[in-house]
Design a protein that fits this description.
homodimer; Metallo-beta-lactamase, Chain A; seven-stranded mixed β-sheet; 10 helices
Chain lengths: 304, 304
């Protein structure tokens, strides 16, 4: 299986604690990196993670609250100090570019690279990013300000060549691409070797869904059905259900209910309120509803 | 002696490392806190230090480079989330308020407290802050952008009452303030008790000088003469002397030369370039010139 990992850089909520950084994650698909949210300190955590700055080309911002984007200025400045040349693409709800522009103009006067902003509407799900191996689609969420989660969907890979069979039939290299794409092979003698003998199907494409910040929103279930990994915010425990509603956040149990309804394979919860000395209560409340749940933490790296 | 301490929150330079945060310090004078510079992550380090957010009312920004002020937005937001009501005063070179305004307007819409900006000219030394126990004066430095250090000077305290003598002469409480201010005391019998018998002089007022960022600038020596503690940037080792000049920074040896020329009591060096895996070379180069030198680090708390 090719690498498809989620690295948590920060999983606290807005108030800083000694245990958690503000929201930020890095999706690592085949050593290409995609950042989700960029709270204060994201570049410090990124550095600590040993992932390579140069592998990051896209940042996805869920919403314009400080704990999800105050790390952008530092990260952009650092890339500039390092002499980055590759374009950096930032995807976010409307308004971010205009907000950052005065600070960027002032603090990053001579940029060695371009920062390109792509702003999306948060009301409807839309495809905002696509490359050879991945699509990213927004997941409209309900928070105090316009907010979207993101669905990272690996593309279906081509069939895998069975090396022994290809050697056995002495298939020339220039035929390999056609065979990966499903063609049969005809030998010089005119014998047809069916594709099924020369290839095995690639593994099923994997999907990761990021849902933060949001009030309990069952309408997202359809879009994240059976994803391999779901990150869902779980700011509060059940005892704070009223506060969760009031602030448009979710409880751990609600996160688990979404996971169960969507029949996801695994749930990671995060965006923890500063009030919890540890998150055991959140974990146990979630597990009561959806067993395959784990807590995010700042050193977590998990396979999708 | 009353408390006068320096807490280092961050002593790295612009590029993040796994070992150092960007510039930020807290001066603690009798449990009133004064922040100097506020790089990214300052609020996280502040929280870790166990110092109280509510004791901070003034922030002094040396210059408008990101690694000295990108932490302001997060700190201001956090104070707002915590429902702070006391005014927060920010002292900085010209331009900061205008730069931060759009972000503050957007991210901190309903402020529970006021942020007041006080911008100063960096060309001449000026008194920018004064309260009952302290003055803060700028120290003009030479960097790539307008930049000042800060001289924190404790005010001379009143004489200290000698409790035993005051009890012996049955001095009434309402006389104590006059005696602290130097008056003699006349007993009901008309006997004059000289002040020198009732008090001891308060300790000499202490001074702390912060000088970062700056190229080697011997002209600051006069202003920081014989301070109790000097923090001076030491971005580079001697081997990088040319680079230090080019970027308007100092070497560790130059920092020590300033300390020696000013006959300061103690030198702490910081603002370390990311290129050093550890700062042993900086420390030994500085100590060769000024023995009473120590390296800053993110948990350092040192008495002035």
């Amino acid at each position: 299986m090719e690498k498809f990992e989620l690295n948590i850089l920060g999983c606290g909520s807005a108030l800083p604690t000694t245990r958690h950084f503000a929201s930020s994650q890095i999706v690592n698909l085949r050593d290409k990196l995609y950042m989700i949210d960029c709270g204060e300190g994201a570049q410090l955590q990124f550095r600590k993670s040993k992932l390579k700055f140069s592998r990051l080309n896209s940042i996805f911002i869920s919403h314009l609250h400080g704990d999800h984007c105050f790390g952008l200025l530092g990260l952009i400045s650092t890339f500039n100090l390092l002499g980055r040349t590759a374009e950096l693409h930032i995807y976010s709800p409307h308004g971010l570019e205009k907000l950052l522009a005065p600070m960027l103009d002032y603090f990053c006067r001579q940029m060695t690279y371009k920062v390109l902003f792509h702003e999306f509407d948060t009301k409807e799900s839309c495809l905002i990013y696509e490359d050879r191996s991945l699509t990213v689609t927004t997941i409209p969420l309900h928070h105090r300000v316009p907010c979207c989660g993101f669905l990272f969907a690996e593309k279906q890979s081509l069939n895998h060549i069975v090396r022994d069979m290809v050697d056995f039939y002495k298939v020339p290299v220039y035929e390999l691409n056609r065979i990966k794409n499903g063609s049969d092979y005809m030998t010089p003698d005119g014998e047809i070797i069916p594709n099924s003998r020369l290839t095995v199907p690639a593994p099923l494409p994997r999907r990761y869904a990021y849902c933060s910040d949001t009030i309990y929103s069952p309408e997202i279930v359809e879009q994240i059905k059976e994803v391999d990994l779901l990150f869902h915010e779980a700011t509060f425990a059940n005892a704070e259900l009223a506060r969760a509603k009031e602030t448009f956040h979710s409880t751990a149990m609600q996160a688990a209910e979404i996971a169960r309804a969507a029949k996801v394979k695994k749930l990671v919860i995060g965006h923890f309120s500063a009030r919890y000395e540890n998150e055991d209560v959140l974990l146990s409340e979630a597990k009561a509803v959806f067993l395959n749940t784990q807590l995010a933490n700042e050193t977590l790296c998990i396979s999708v």
